[in-house]
Design goal:
DNA polymerase, domain 1, 11 helices, single chain
């Protein structure tokens, strides 16, 4: 979903948190109907909570969505159409939370249409007249890469927490204004592209590094870490730090798993992980922008592997200044550019080669 075009963007002047949560639900309709139905209840419950506050109605702690509905219905606040829409969202959400059956796109679309009725009613009755509600639109099937179900759950739970925090902040702000004190700043909210939701955070000596979802189980190729290569190889031998998910949340004392390393190695690995993550973001971006293309990657740079480039022979005449690398590649049966590994730093494994010679090969490939 494009953060600039999602349907409920018109809600941002009222509540950016509510708008983005609705936008995320839109994104889940065709990727995970169950997830969409389950989390839709949070959106409508937040709307009803705001309605009760605006109507100056007291509510008991831990009140349920059904109880809110009953109270508002008994007070004559809900029209028949809105009451039925709220019950539909609630009931489908309850089923999705407990029923193991497969949920259909059509059910998610029913809930989506009901949400529109609820949002339109809320905006028109309780918010600024300057906010214009667009006509209902069915969501379109996403053409871009989608979130998978686990990332969707992470994003929605995070946004729901922000939505609750924003409600508490508004209450505190009202109290502060009455007492003549300053407002509390709003939490930062942003739309993340698929794969970029923070799955976890790594720490070292008070510094924090966010790991995006698409790298949750990324292989930590030692050759990608110039100063930590040997450290990672040794850790890998102890079944530590082979993939991102094996890393502890705090990298302090990681060196205790292997001999003859110290805290400086922990620090250096943490710093190189920052570089690794940024390089991977660049690679992911170019890969998504150019689907179907073949690439050769070297650090944060890349080459498009065209048919013409694939057929260039790997000979000392074609690639000068790296005779040892060319010879060893040929001995391993790699005779043309198209046979090179996607990750060129792997070539540093060859005897007497190293990153300098791999860099020379890459620059000559770029020149072609």
């Amino acid at each position: 979903m494009n953060s600039t075009t999602y349907f409920y963007k018109f809600l941002e002047p009222i509540s950016k948190e509510l708008a983005i949560l609705a936008g995320e639900l839109e994104n889940t309709i065709f990727s995970s109907p169950r997830t969409m139905l389950t989390h839709s209840r949070v959106l409508v419950e937040n709307i009803l909570q705001q309605v009760m506050e605006l109507e100056k109605m007291k509510e008991e702690p831990r009140i349920t969505l059904k109880e809110r509905l009953t109270i508002l219905e008994n007070e004559g606040i809900l029209t028949t159409e809105i009451r039925d829409a709220l019950h539909l969202v609630r009931q489908l959400g309850n089923q999705a939370s407990h029923d193991k059956r497969k949920f259909r796109f059509s059910e998610a679309l029913l809930s989506w249409e009901a949400i529109y009725k609820i949002v339109r009613w809320f905006v028109e009755v309780y918010t600024s007249l300057s906010v214009e509600v667009p006509e209902y639109q069915d969501p379109t099937t996403p053409k871009e890469e989608r979130y998978d179900s686990t990332e969707l759950e992470l994003r929605l739970k995070s946004l729901e927490k922000l939505l609750l925090a924003s409600m508490k902040k508004e209450k505190t702000n009202k109290t502060s204004q009455e007492e003549g004190t300053s407002n509390i700043p709003s939490p930062h909210v942003k739309m993340a592209e698929p794969g970029y939701t923070t799955i976890r955070a790594l720490e070292y000596n008070g510094d924090t590094l966010e790991v995006p979802y698409f790298l949750r189980d990324a292989f930590l190729l030692p050759q990608r870490f110039e100063k930590s290569e040997t450290f990672l190889i040794r850790l890998g031998a102890e079944q530590q730090a082979r993939i991102m998910s094996e890393l502890p949340n705090n990298l302090e004392n990681l060196h205790h798993h292997v001999k003859r390393f110290n805290e400086n190695n922990d620090k250096q690995l943490f710093e190189e992980l920052k570089i690794f993550i940024e390089e991977e973001k660049i690679r992911r971006k170019v890969t998504l922008e150019r689907p179907g293309e073949l690439f050769l990657f070297y650090k944060d740079d890349y080459i498009i592997l065209t048919d013409a480039l694939k057929d260039i022979p790997l000979t000392k005449e074609q690639f000068t200044g790296i005779p040892s690398l060319i010879k060893q590649l040929n001995e391993d049966g790699i005779h043309s550019v198209g046979q090179l590994p996607k990750e060129l730093v792997i070539l540093g494994k060859y005897k007497n080669v190293g990153v300098v010679n791999v860099g020379r090969l890459f620059e000559q490939l770029k020149g072609r």
